[in-house]
Amino acid sequence: MRRIWAAAAAAGALAAAGCGGGGGGGGSVPEGASVAPASSIAFISVNTDFSSDQWQKVTELAARFPGTPQLIAEIEKQTHGLDFEQDVKPALGPEVDLVWIDAKNDGNDVVGLTKPDSEAKLEGLLLKARSKGESKAALAKVGDWVAIADSQAKLDRFVAASHGDKLADDADFRQAFEQVDSGSSVRAWVSGPFVQAAMDKGLADNGAPPRLTHDVGDLKAISGGAKAEDDGASIELNGLIDPTPDPATFDPSLPGDVPDGVLLYVGTTSLDAPLKTVLRLVGKSLPKFNSQLNQVETVLGITLQGDIYPLLKGESALAVYRGTPDLPRILFVQKVDDDQKAESLLRKIGAIAQLGGDVRVGTVELGGETVHTLTVPGTVTIYDGVSKGKLFITNAANLAEQTISGPSNSLGDDPLYRSTRDATGMPKNVAAFAYGDLENGLPYVLRLAAQSGSSVPPEAFANTKPLHGAVVYLVKDGDALRMSGFATIK
Fold first, then answer.
1. Could you say which DSSP state residue 135 is in?
2. Which of 77, 84, 124, 281 is 20 to 30 A from 477 via CA?
């Protein structure tokens, strides 16, 4: 059964390859939701209108990857020689949907839906598939749609449930899909209550109180989509939560203060807010946690409320660079309002680290300023300090020096970063964002994997060449939190 749908699913995979994501909204509910049971836990809709502009773009993007012919050959091998153009394409309607009835049987309780132009061609495809070694698939008409499952019992359950309430009439389902661009190659939805119940159960099994995640809000639904564009691929992911979180936003400025050559950059603001939420939930899960935390604060002479939270209110950035085969170079930068207070906190942390006996504390002159060091002999040296309203922590002396003196070439001036950010359409103010230099970062990761003994085939390096940059950002969009982004493919 899974092989019958492999070609249709491959379209979505190609559209999503290397994704980031564009803007959201303006979506419509897939037609297949009109026959899918409201009790379903997940729904994926694939655009199989092969004459559409979206399919043309998928094909063009796929052609840029040297490995596409091998992928097609592997799909044909898995489907025992079924030909996509001759066998699969004529049998499918403009929309193919996958509906998960429940989460049992390792997630295999899934039914396919399509509205073929010719049912005879669809039946011919299934007949040919069986003759080539496929397991017997069961078919049933549900209105104008054809439902397909890999067992009659599964199909009977779906048909019986489809006589009741429909997904298309569920308010949360509709709202979730309306967040997603209807022109996407692939659109997906997952039941929020199902996900949240699973999370609560996992936490409760480890001693947390029931319904702990509801302390943050009620998850109504998760939806997303992937779309092929002229020069890349976009993706979006929406979370509908009641009440909708209202994260602090910022206009990123630290990219202009960190050196270029970044492979991965993550920026955000007001880290104190999520930290408070996490610690509050931990306190509810562990009865002794808060009292133990108070004792630790007393012993260390450092408090969350007076020292840590105020420090984390401004813009933060984490940048990753090429490094040694064992460890990349990493730079953390935090904007601070009070340089002296931030410096005092770093010194307290250094003194505490030295008490363990395995850490050596020292100083070094970098960029005309005194920078403190924490060294674990034989492993790593950490450089930290505060300069011009910025606290920095790094494992590379040159990154510390450039942060102090100001980089001659910054990430903010990097052409790849700027072009990728602009292609993404990232707004001026965001809650968080991430940038990845795929052009240089992916080969670096593959080389590290090869040096560590992993088998990395040569074609893996070749297939990274079309991927250039990616940006993903988080914003509040009406009643949803939306993560959008874009990856350039050339």
1. P
2. 281
Residues 27, 171, single domain; the answer is yes
Burial class of residue 215 in the structure, from the number of CB atoms within 10 Å of its CB (0-12 exposed, 13-18 middle, 19+ buried): exposed
**How far is the C-alpha of 172 from the C-alpha of 190, rounded, in Å?**
10
Quote the pLDDT of residue 290. 93
Report pLDDT digits (tens) over 155-201.
999 999 999 999 999 999 999 999 999 999 999 999 999 999 999 99
One-letter amino acid of 400: A
HEC profile of 146-182: EEEECCHHHHHHHHHHHCCCEHHHCHHHHHHHHCCCC
- Domain assignment present for residue 278? The answer is no
Chain-centroid distance of CA 459 in Å reads 25
Residues 229, 234, 240, 243: is their CA dihedral positive or negative? negative
C-alpha distance across the termini of the chain, in Å: 35
> Which of 217, 240, 263 delimits the end of a domain?
240
What is the DSSP-derived secondary structure letter of residue 90? Answer: G
Structure tokens at 241: 């939560």
Q: Are residues 196 and 265 in the same domain?
A: no
Evaluate whether 371 touches 391 at the Cβ level (below 8 Å): no
398-450: per-residue pLDDT in tens?
999 999 999 999 999 999 999 999 999 999 999 999 999 999 999 999 998 88
Task: Find the radius of gyration of the CA atoms of the chain.
Answer: 26
d(CA 61, CA 416): 19
How many domains does the chain divide into? 2
Q: Identify the bridge partners of residue 332 per DSSP, sorted by sequence position.
A: 318, 393
Together in a domain, 464 and 352: yes
Sign of the four-CA dihedral 438, 440, 443, 444: negative
Residue 391: domain span: 244-271+312-490
Angstrom distance (rounded) from CA 111 to CA 180: 23
